[in-house]
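Q: Could you write out the predicted structure for this multi-component system? I'm mainly interested in how the pieces pack against one another.
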Amino acid sequence: MTTEAPVLLSREHFDALLAALAKRGYTVVGPTVRDGTIVYDEIGRPEELPVGWTDEQEGGHYRLKRREDEALFGYVVGPQSWKKYLHPPRLRLVKAERDGDGALVFTDGDEAEPPRYAFLGMRSCELHAMTIQDRVFLGGAAADSHYERRRKRVFSIGVSCGEAGGTCFCASMNTGPAVTDRTPHDLALTEVIDSGRHFFVVAAGSDEGREVLAELPVTPAGDGDVAAAKERVDRAAASMGRSLNAEGVRELLRENLEHPRWDDVAQRCLTCANCTMVCPTCFCTTVEDVTDLTGDHAERWRRWDSCFTMDFTWMHGGGARQSAKSRYRQWLTHKLSTWHDQFDSSGCVGCGRCVSWCPVGIDLTEEIAAIRDSEPPAQPDES
Amino acid sequence: MSTATEKPKLAVWKFASCDGCQLSLLDCEDELLAVADAIEIANFAEATRRVVDGPYELSLVEGSITTAHDAERIRQVRAQSKFLVTIGACATAGGIQALRNWRDVAEMASVVYASPEVLETLATSTPISDHVPVDFELRGCPVNKKQLVEVVLAFLHRRKPLVSAHSVCLECKLRGNPCVMVAHGAPCLGPVTQAGCGAICPAYNRACFGCYGPMESPNTAALSAQWSAMGVPDRDIMRAYRSYNGYASPFREESDKHDH
C-alpha cells in the first residue's frame, strides 16, 4: 500500500531507476517510437523512451507530434498493450515426437523460462486491464499457467497521465487517469515539467517497490511538488477526448439486443478484428496443430483469435455468427455487459484503442450513446 | 488401386499465368526434398521433363482460362485428378489478365499485334472454378510457400488445410505492425483482404495491395467510404480493387461502383 510520503526523482536521475531494475535482473520494457507510433519494446536508456513526443488520436486516426518540452511520458497509449508479454500473440503449447518404436512422446511446448519483465510506464487504464486479465487467467477452473508464469514475475511501474488523449475515456470507466491503490503496482510516477524543473513524484505500491525506491537518489517531495503533480492528473481527468455513460450500460445492452443501431454499425464495420487485437482485455485464442512433412513431429500452437472471424464460431455447417451485426454486437455486449456476469467487472477500461485503431473510426462511446439516447424500444408484451 | 509402397502422384499444371506460383513450390528448398520423398512428382514442367501418366492423387493448377483450348484442357486435368487445388490469383480469380474482361479484346489485339487474326483467345480470363469443380483454392499473388506445403500435406494426410480466411489486419497485429492506414493515412486493402502473406507489405510500411483477394466477409463499401473521406479519388479506388484479384466478385463489384 502507498502509505509513505511520496518522493521526488529528478529527470537527471531517471536512468538510476533503469539501472536498479537491470541490477535486479529485470528486462525493462516500455514505450518507444517505431514506424510513427509508440510501441512497447525493451528500454535500455531513458533516451529510448519517446522523449518529446505526443500523440494525436481520433477515431481511425493516430499521428505522432513533437512536444514543446522533453517529457518522457507526454503521450497516452498506442496500438500495443502489455498483454503481448503476458498473453503472447503466438505460443507453442505442446510438442509431439514419434520415437523409434512409433510411440508418441509429448513434451511441454512453452518450456523456456520467460524473462522477468519490468513494465515501465503502465497507465492506470493498463493496470486496470492487467487486473481484469488476472481475473480471466488466474482464477477458477480455467486458470492459465502460461499467463501465470509470466505475470507473477512482473514489476510494474505505473505512470499517472498528465494529459488525456483524443479517444481516452478512463474517467468515465473509473479506471484513471491516476494510478491508485485500486490496482496492484510496484511504483507509481507522475511526471512534472514546471519552471525549468523536470522531475517525477514517485510512490511505492509494494515491498519490492519500496526496496527499489531505497536504491534511488530520491529526495523528499515538497507539498508544492505533490500539488503540481495532482493538478496535472486532475487536468487530464477533466480533458478526456471521449466519455461514456457507464451507468446501467450492462442492463442497457442486455435489453437492446435487437436495437436498429446494430444494423447501422454493421454497415460501417469491416469485421477486420482490429478492435479486439488492440484491446488490452480481449483474450480469445484459437489452437492450431502443425505437422512436418514426415509426420514424425507435430506442434500445437495457440494464437490470438477474434470474435470477428468466421472460424471463431465454426461448428458443423459453418460459423454461428454469420453477419457483421451479430459479431459486432457479440463483442460490444461481452465487453460492457456480459463481462460483468462472467468476471464481475466491465471488460472496458476506457483506453480508447478500439476507437483510434478502427480503420473506419467506429466509436463505441457513440454507439452506446446512440442506443441510450434513442426512444425506448417497444416491449415485446406491448406489441 | 495403388499398393502401399506406391507414393501418391502429384501433378502441377500451368494455364494463363506468370509461373510465379509454381516457382513458390520450387522455392520450398528445405522442404522440397522431403516433399519429393513423400510423393511422386508426376508432372511438373518447371522442375522436370519427366511426365508420368495419370490419374493423379493431387493436381495443383496455376493460371486462368483464356483460350478455348485451355477450357478443354482443364476438363481433362479434372478427369485425371482425385483432388484439384488451384493456386494463386490467376487460378482463383482470373488474375491480372482478367482486366481484359472490362475491355474489348479484339480491339486490344488489333492495337498490340501485327497479325491479330492468328490469335485464338477468349474474350475473358476466368478462374478455374468457373469451368470445373475445385476442391480447394489457395490464394495469393504469388502463393505463400508455407501455405502451399501445408495444403499439399493436408490433402495427402486427408485433413483440413490450416488456411485462415480472416483479414490481413489480424496478421498485422500478431506481428506487431503499426496500422499504416490509421497511423500514416495510407489507403490499405488489408481490412478486406484475406490473410496468408504474413502481412508483408505493412511490415515495410506499405499499404496492402490485396494480393490474397477478398477476405471471408469483406465490407468493401465501408472501406471505400473511408478512403474517400481520406481524399482518395474514385479512379484510384477503382484501380486498387481492380488488380490481381480484380475479377473476384466483391472486388469486381466494388471497382465497378467507382468506374465512372
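A: Regarding packing and overall arrangement: The longest strand of chain A covers residues 90-98.
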